[in-house]
Design a protein that fits this description.
Length: 496
């Protein structure tokens, strides 16, 4: 013990945090999105909560500086459901600065939690804590899903952003006609490799994912829209591993094809054409086949010409009958972009189809080609008379007009002999390409042999004996079945 007095000194230093109490989510202090404050972490284990409300997506930056050397200040951001938006972020060392950047994906309220790294230190010394919010002016948001796609005009430009990380933007366009849609992304942030694809309403890709040569590069692609309807453009970062609040431009350019006959990709969809007319059509998309239906009132010669073709296409056509049996086979152009022309011999009245496609189905073009048809009916009314059983009766002493069309055509005529004698056959006014031969058979189909002209285009004369009265059949054909002509010749049969 001692009778000597001593001095006891008390000192109180306030932990001057004006935002307390804010130690839990329910007590979170509401703050504007841009503000600087000076809070404390006191006592040990103290956690401070703040909440901010944003009207649109953007980047929230929180910075802690001038921190007591005993502490390492950590910060995280969560949504109202407690789901982490940006996990705990801290300094490199105790007393160091902390910088957190949180990508806030949609409008709403967010919570900011601040505390010591291990809840093992505290200080009455205030530190500097600042918040800044930079909105992302993406006019299309929210459009993060197929169902949330923003409908935009099929031609035009708009600003977009891939924000936050993992963001996908969806646009939708409505078109009333098949055509070509060009998609273009430019002025991309240097850390993004923008990829795009185009899908139809069934989410089937029309144009698969296309991307840039490098991060920050431009992206351009062309999607062929095969039918009217709604199409979707999906935009994302290449690996969904980057984001940026900076805007880039997405431009769309739609060109409707002038082909008014789509969809006509098969016989069932083939629109009717008027013979002797001219139409415009497109080979679009790649692999497109166009079908047209024509109706011939008689047998005849159908001439088809395809000109004004795009330079990268070699357009082929074929003509088939109503059973899709080929009449011509595929007719080729002289070269890519060249004229395609050919003739189809229609053997009888009826329905026929013209099928048009690119040579290897490996090219397409929004530029049109021109299809022209011209029909020359044959003069005779005897077809079909291509067999013994379908022989057409003709009168003795009368002149008739007939044709050999198509190549390989053989015509049969029924003759009646009044008695034993001879049929005198005369075939003249013959096209220079033909050498007309005749043959006579009796009722039992016994043939007497073929008689022809001295040269192509020459007159055929034959006197064919018959042993008795009765029915006989006259068979007429080109000499080697290697020529045809829509120009009629004259046939006369006399009897003596």
């Amino acid at each position: 013990e001692s009778s000597t007095p001593f001095t006891v000194t008390f000192d109180f230093v306030a932990a001057d945090d004006p935002f307390e109490p804010n130690d839990n989510i329910g007590a979170a202090t509401p703050l504007p999105t841009s503000l600087a404050i000076a809070p404390t972490i006191y006592p040990r284990g103290d956690n401070d909560w703040y909440k901010v409300w944003i009207a649109q997506p953007g980047l929230l930056t929180a910075a802690a500086s001038a921190v007591d050397e005993a502490m390492d200040v950590y910060i995280q951001v969560v949504d109202l459901n407690g789901k982490s938006v940006r996990g705990w972020t801290g300094p490199d060392r105790k007393g160091g600065d902390t910088l957190l950047e949180a990508e806030l994906p949609e409008p709403g309220t967010y919570l900011i939690q601040v505390g010591d790294g291990n809840n093992d230190a505290a200080s009455v010394k205030p530190f500097e804590l600042s918040f800044r919010f930079d909105p992302v002016a993406d006019e299309n948001e929210p459009n993060n899903s197929f169902g949330g796609a923003v409908i935009v005009p099929p031609s035009g430009a708009r600003q977009a952003a891939i924000f936050p990380r993992g963001d996908e933007d969806w646009l939708a366009v409505d078109v009333d006609h098949p055509g070509e849609l060009v998609v273009l992304a430019t002025n991309s942030p240097d850390n993004l490799d923008i990829y795009m694809q185009v899908l139809n309403a069934d989410k089937t890709p029309i144009l698969g994912w296309i991307g840039p040569a490098r991060a920050g590069g431009d992206v351009e692609g062309v999607a062929d829209l095969p039918t009217p309807g709604r199409y979707f453009i999906q935009i994302a970062d290449g690996n969904n591993d980057q984001s940026s609040p900076d805007l880039f431009e997405v431009a769309l350019a739609y060109t409707a094809e002038p082909d008014q006959y789509e969809p006509n990709n098969g016989p069932a969809e083939a629109p009717p054409l008027t013979l002797g007319g001219q139409i415009l059509f497109n080979i679009l998309p790649r692999g497109d086949n166009d079908w047209f239906r024509v109706e011939a009132a008689s047998a005849g010669e159908l001439a088809i010409v395809i000109d004004e073709s795009p330079e990268d296409l070699d357009i082929y056509f074929q003509v088939v009958d109503a059973d899709q049996k080929p009449i011509t086979g595929w007719v080729a152009p002289y070269r890519k972009g060249g004229v395609t022309e050919g003739i189809a011999d229609l053997p009888m009245p009826g329905i026929y189809f013209i099928q048009v496609s690119d040579g290897n189905n490996d090219a397409r073009s929004v530029t049109h080609a021109t299809l022209t048809t011209a029909f020359t009916p044959i003069a005779e009314a005897f077809e079909p008379n291509n067999s013994f059983g379908s022989a057409v009766p003709i009168e003795l002493g009368e002149s008739y007009r007939a044709t050999i069309l198509p190549r390989g055509d053989v015509d049969w005529y029924l003759l009646e002999a009044p008695r034993a004698g001879s049929f005198v056959i005369t075939v003249d006014e013959v096209d220079e390409d033909l050498d007309i031969y005749v043959n006579l058979t009796d009722a039992e189909a016994n043939a007497g042999g073929w008689f022809g002209p001295p040269r192509k285009g020459g007159v055929t004369e034959a006197e064919l004996a018959v042993p008795a009265a009765g029915l006989y059949r006259l068979q007429i054909a080109d000499g080697n079945n290697d020529a045809r002509s829509a120009v009629p010749f004259r046939l006369r049969v006399d009897f003596k």
